[in-house]
Amino acid sequence: MLIATQEQSEIAAALRLLDAALAVAPRMEVALELKERSLLCLCRFKEVADMLQDYIPSLKMVISEDESTTGSSDNSSTQLSKNDSRSIPPAAPPSRRNVEEAGQWRYSELGQACCHLGLMEDALVLLQTGKRLATAAFRRESISLSDDIFSSIKHPLSGQPERPPKTEFESISHLLCHIKLLIRRKTAAIAALDAGLCSEAVRHFTKILDGCRGTPQGFLSECYVHRTSTFRK
Fold this sequence. Notes:
The chain is mainly alpha-helical. It is about 75% helix and about 0% strand.
């Protein structure tokens, strides 16, 4: 109820209660999910990423590379330093079964946080995974419903079909489209830069910066740096 109010003070109060619950039961799935949602509402994106760092694709790649170049003793110290007290217990290898068992919310919440932090490639992978899991869950639920239930949903007693509110699924779909557009423009700009087409690269970076509404600050900063370095060439 506190989180549903969308009031910052109420969400902060809910977060304190969730922290108390997680101190007793660190693996309580419902409490973990609610905490992530609370942190997102409070725009504390870095904390979301810290809690779910084991699910960030680029971080997993870096860790895998480190493990392949260091000895077993170094691996132990790396694992100890990587997992702090705020982290959710580390994820298993990313097989299909483990992804499904992890829960759709992890990927959706972390994907949104990564987007706000400017980690667009990570956000794209995470949100696509979350969307796929949400779609699969909806299909399973749909199959389990009887025709009578479907009929009552589509044709309520009032006789007028209800217009559903904007769902989280739709919000994530919209965010995915925005992320894909930004990544596509950035990729085109860097490709032009690598090909020595500086004016073309500047044009692509300028498109990103001119349409910066809703674009994460971290991503914009990176594009500013690229465009500035392009001007100097």
